[in-house]
Amino acid sequence: MKYSISASMAIDSKPYCSCSMQIKETFSFRVPVIAAPMFLVSGIELVVSSVNAGIVGAFPTLNARTPALLDAWLSEIKDRTLGASGLVAANLILHPSNGRRDDDLDIVINHRVPWVITSVGSPANVAGRIHAYGGRVLADVATVRHARKAIEAGVDMLVLLTAGAGGNTGWINPFAFIEEVRSFWSGPLAVAGCVTTGRQVRAVQVAGADMAYMGTPFIATPESMASQDYKEALVAAGADDIVKTDAVTGIPANFLKSSLLAQGIMQADGSLLPKGASDLASWKTAWSAGQGVASIGAVETVAHRVEKLHQEWIKAADVVAR
Q1: Structural domain span for residue 54
Q2: Tens of pLDDT along 58-80?
Q3: 170 and 210 part of one domain
Q4: pLDDT at position 1, please?
Q5: Domain count, the chain
Q6: Is the pTM of this model over 0.70?
Q7: Distance between CA atoms of 33 and 313, rounded to whole angstroms?
Q8: CA distance 93 to 200
Q9: Which tens digits make up the pLDDT trace of 35-62?
Q10: Backbone angles phi, psi at 179, to 5 degrees
Q11: Sign of the C-alpha dihedral, residues 88, 311, 208, 174?
């Protein structure tokens, strides 16, 4: 199914927007979903399978453990997704503490990665270089203030990080967030947070978004780099098994309770270690997940999961039309 996304980098009537370029692009995604870039989870197989299934396959550049490996990954991903209807997206961590930031950006530009997702920092200094080769810039934002700043920086799409998202999470209700951002931004909008089914993809579109940003369901696939224990824990979990804590990353993030208990980050009485108390290496064993985990149900291939999302999304259109 084809549909249009307005890849506008600004709306002329909005004085805070720094660019007046208006572009219209049409994508033939199977379902309007971005398989979110997940640290230590999204690798070549997950990205390739997502793109070939007809959605956006994203990964953090840091998952390739060296810049040389990132270069090799992007070459392989390109070779294995020729002719696919999906797209590749690379996630760049822009915080100055990322010592690979500049090297990874150069590699992404060299490979002309179609979509670049920017996180933990302003995209202002990278947007121009990505636009120069025709790439599109997406920005993760968790507040309305950051959404405005991302627009000023010249991004093409906002990714609203809303309450209940896996890993580093937002705290604004998606309906409130979408509505307020839509009061000043008419460009492409994706929503992250508890979107796990095709019905929910349709719901965020009805609410005013263009795409869904989906992570947790793609952890529970054979193609992800997650351990089998992690995948099985996701299948067994429900919303009550998700705990938000800042002990692991220093900022609020959602994790599976069972993994926090196993690592001693959470005690049997429910108490948690203080902010940033856990070693960052605990990301390997403190398993992130969103509040929508109960709908996962089973470990399924990416192709099967995308097809199911597509069918649910189509059926939901009939409900909306009634």
Answers
A1: 24-225
A2: 999 999 999 999 999 999 999 99
A3: yes
A4: 42
A5: 2
A6: yes
A7: 11
A8: 28
A9: 999 999 999 999 999 999 999 999 999 9
A10: -60, -45
A11: negative
